[in-house]
Amino acid sequence: MRKNIIRSVSALMIALSVGACSDEFTNLEPKGSTSYENFFRTEQDAIEAANSMYFYMKDEDMFSRGFFWYINASDDMVTGRVNGTADNIKNFKMTGEEGYTYWMYPQSYKIIRRANDVLLNVADMEISESLKNRILGEAYFMRAFHYFWLAHTYGDNGDNGGVPILTEENMFDDAGSYSRPTSVVENYAQIIGDLEKAVALLPLFTEYSADDLGRAHKDAALAYMAKTYLYWAQYDDSKYEEVIKYADAVTNSGSGRALYDTGNPEEDFRLLHSHLNNWGPEYIWTVDSGVNGGSKLPGVALENKGWGKYNGWGYYTPTQELYDEFEDNDPRRGVTILKFGDSFKFFGEEKRYQSENSLSGLQFNKYMYEYQFEDPIGSYINPNGDDPTTLYNVPVMRYAEVLLMKAEALIMLGRNGDEPLNMVRERAGLNPVTGATMEDLKHERRVELAGEFANRHFDLVRWGDAKEAYSKPLHGRIHADKTDPDSPFNIGEVWPARNFDPSYMHVWPIPNQVVNSSGISQNKGW
């Protein structure tokens, strides 16, 4: 939601602020003066209920770090700073007690609960039909979006099964009565059903006024249908056809989805990753951010202590392996990664990159555009360094990923995926690929979406590549003098090889508190 909308915590959010465990999200005891008896009466009530569903998009433990700790397990990055908890997550040595990864599961179910309340109550309200449809569409989308993250993070088609399915139809069942479906496929089917309803009810992004930018819209629902089917396809090859269908539906929706491409590859990719393109045609779903809140990822990935200018946190530093994955003439590499000696502007000052903190001698550059200005605090970046958000809406789904999903599906079906893949390469100013293979697709997905919520770790898992990838150590640039941008370096190991066991590490452990309070089973092996 726009900042002025989400900043207000609605009465419903206070009343229905419940946890994710089954004995909590069936608890209707009001935590304040608001209850069902005096809520869901007016259009404003319905709007506030819809607004409440976006609250945890900005939460630090969701789309700032939260889910990113699992993406950090990939071969694209290392933790960046010495941190025992973060290191154990990356090394797959988890107990289910980790605070860094506790909150995503319950926070997601809180939003699912709020979506269920909207669906249960708004349908019968006497309010404008267009507003009612939009709000119901938002509820279906937000429920599906959070189930999407829960499903592939914690569920499988094997011994574990899916994650509990809570809807407006069973939300009042007895505490402790919820069970895990036998397969995550049941979750994917539920997600698809919700997204189909969202598509039918939601407007196009281009039909929203400026005050409503950030709400769920038709293209977001279509794109997540494509991605849900892509993840489902690891168990059922026939679903690749649906990936193609819904990727094309995004392209042909009427909202003008396109890559940001003015013919200047380096500048285009740089400006793409800036607040200037927050609402551009390439950005399908993002964390609506600003100087007073949003995704903290830009500050989390910034040099620790920000060269004395700002409270960067110094996490998620790129590996030499990611750097080497880029073709030498790929302008995306410089926009994505800073290496020692690279020039950039920071707080109005021309600087050359060096780091006394980065374990790999590298830093993600994608999220740094807003730090370049002479006095950015309060206008481009958050005055509170403990809440280091910027004007940039951190991407969760871009049109480039939609094209690459289509290319992957075509290749997996034995067809030609060159056209959508080469659209992404053309924007980067690179020569087209002929007869693209899965190796071409894996390369393009890795370099185009590096350091984003597109989820490199889960890509490796679903492709069956994680064991081999993680059996190799990760490297960085070990500089003789970390204060000198021109310091010579050696390529050295910065993270040891890991023993990834795909028999159980393909999913993550459910937080133990959730398991203990709800009675659902923990994922096997953890």
Question: What are the key terms here?
Answer:
526 residues, mainly alpha, two-stranded antiparallel sheet, two-stranded antiparallel ribbon, 10 strands, disordered N terminus
Q: How do the helices and strands line up, and which of them pair or pack?
A:
Blueprint: H1 3-6, H2 11-15, H3 43-52, H4 60-63, H5 68-71, E1 77-78, H6 84-90, H7 104-122, H8 129-154, H9 184-201, H10 218-232, H11 240-251, H12 265-272, E2 283-287, H13 297-300, E3 317-318, H14 320-325, H15 332-336, E4 337-339, E5 343-346, E6 349-352, E7 362-364, E8 394-398, H16 399-412, H17 418-427, H18 438-448, H19 456-463, H20 466-470, E9 474-479, E10 489-495, H21 512-518
Antiparallel strand pairs: 1-3, 2-8, 4-7, 5-6, 9-10
Descriptive report:
There is one protein chain. The chain has 526 residues and is mainly α. It has helices at residues 3-6, 11-15, 43-52, 60-63, 68-71, 84-90, 104-122, 129-154, 184-201, 218-232, 240-251, 265-272, 297-300, 320-325, 332-336, 399-412, 418-427, 438-448, 456-463, 466-470, 512-518, and strands at 77-78, 283-287, 317-318, 337-339, 343-346, 349-352, 362-364, 394-398, 474-479, 489-495. The strands form 5 sheets. A two-stranded antiparallel sheet has the order 1-3. A two-stranded antiparallel ribbon has the order 2-8. A two-stranded antiparallel ribbon has the order 4-7. The longest helix is centred in the N-terminal third of the chain and has 26 residues, at 129-154. It starts with a helix and ends in an 8-residue tail after the last helix.
